[in-house]
Design goal:
Layout lengths: L1 H11 L15 E3 L2 E2 L4 E5 L10 E4 L2 E2 L1 E6 L4 H10 L11 H5 L4 E5 L6 E9 L2 E2 L3 E5 L6
Parallel strand pairs: 2-10
Antiparallel strand pairs: 1-3, 3-7, 4-5, 4-8, 6-7, 8-9, 8-10
């Protein structure tokens, strides 16, 4: 009986966090071509944090340098007070969100020269794939 009670209490204290899943918009890459080891800035939304974001180039996972949402404070505040999620089009927040630019900087993995698909995955969902041209590393 005591064991059953303890198991019931343990089950009642478990919690989980859920996030609305959506599609990230199609990313833009700058530059659109780079050598392995170089940094590329990707613009997309909604972005989150480095710790919950993955960028793949082909099958290789890219090292993330930073996510910059520094121009998004007014937009985030408006969405919070308006009850809009990061995935929704929030009509009341159109003006403050117009200035919100979200970027993610990553390092091109060590891949052969050619065109490679780039995809972002974070807690909101995943993006469409865009192509990055990986340039050949010059030989000395």
């Amino acid at each position: 009986m005591l064991l059953s009670l303890l198991l019931m209490l343990a089950c009642e204290t478990a919690t989980s966090t859920s996030y609305k899943t959506c599609s990230l918009n199609t990313p833009a890459l700058a530059p659109a071509s780079a050598m392995p080891g170089e940094q590329v800035v990707l613009t997309a939304q909604p972005l989150t944090e480095v710790w919950d974001t993955a960028v793949t180039v082909g099958a290789a996972r890219a090292e993330l340098v930073e996510v910059d949402r520094s121009t998004c404070d007014d937009c985030d505040d408006c969405r919070d007070t308006g009850g809009c999620s990061s995935c929704d089009d929030c009509e009341d927040c159109a003006t403050p969100c117009d200035t919100c630019v979200q970027t993610l900087t990553f390092i091109v993995p060590d891949l052969g020269a050619g065109e490679w698909p780039v995809e972002i995955v974070n807690r909101h969902g995943r993006s469409e794939r865009v192509l990055l041209t990986v340039l050949a590393v010059p030989t000395p």
